[in-house]
Specification:
The structure is a homodimer of 140-residue chains. The first copy, chain A, has one domain: Aldehyde Oxidoreductase, domain 3 (Alpha-Beta Complex). In chain A, a hairpin with a 2-residue loop joins β3 and β4. Chain A is built from four helices and eight strands; from the N terminus they run βαβββαβββαβα. A four-stranded mixed sheet of chain A has the order 1-5-7-2. Chain A is 36% helix and 38% strand. Chain A is globular. The first copy, chain A, is of the alpha+beta class and 140 residues long.
Chain lengths: 140, 140
């Protein structure tokens, strides 16, 4: 879903596929991209990856609400957010937040605030998949 | 040139070529990339692009000095910086600053600080190429 300044999506499409479609802009001097990467450990245990799940309509609705609120609360910018759902292996991105601004100064703060709001309120759940449970499955 | 935590380069290679070689990391949950894009205008005049020039050894030496100083001044992180020299068309990136951190909070501040220091002290010069001078050239 998209407004004039914001587009948001939540699906099983990898971040790199979404990012490969990003359009350049000659009116925005700053193009900042935050990739949230699945780490290969949690509480010192090895992780194979994370399984993300969500209530589709609810999560996207909240993401779009954040986009609209950010448009009101911050200087003019473009933003694109994609969150992957389903299994994401360690070392791979589960989210990208792209923020384009005319000048660089404001882009960092805006991108960081998108991340903060998304983490706080978009209903997407994480289930860590540990290396142990993987090897259990293989031996059963 | 590279240290264990920083690599810097300045060449005519496009940012997208450099970025396509970036390696993923499963120990860094945040991968932040700042693309500095050539804008299509300056002082309300249309720009075709910018011609970047530098003293090769001096500019790279200063970039590497910044990388070493950032390692001392900020929490552990990985960083890669590439600056394009030569002609860069409007809408295309002339610099990428990639910062990887274990958690997202510190990445934004570190990336912003790399940008600030690079803009302040790396001796790379910009010559705007205006649309008018381009059409002049064609008619002469």
């Amino acid at each position: 879903m998209a407004s004039s300044h914001f587009s948001g999506s939540i699906s099983d499409q990898p971040v790199e596929v979404i990012e490969s479609r990003f359009q350049p802009s000659a009116t925005h001097g700053a193009d900042l991209r935050f990739h949230g990467i699945v780490r290969g450990y949690e509480d010192e245990k090895s992780l194979v990856g994370i399984e993300y799940s969500h209530y589709p309509a609810m999560a996207l609705q909240e993401l779009m609400r954040i986009g609209a609120a950010m448009e009101r609360d911050y200087p003019p910018h473009l933003a694109q957010v994609h969150h992957v759902v389903g299994f994401v292996p360690a070392g791979v991105a589960s989210i990208i937040i792209r923020v384009q601004t005319p000048h660089s100064a404001e882009g960092f703060e805006i991108c960081r605030e998108y991340l903060r709001r998304i983490k706080t309120s978009v209903p997407i759940w994480k289930k860590p998949v540990f290396a142990e449970s993987n090897s259990d499955a293989k031996t059963s």
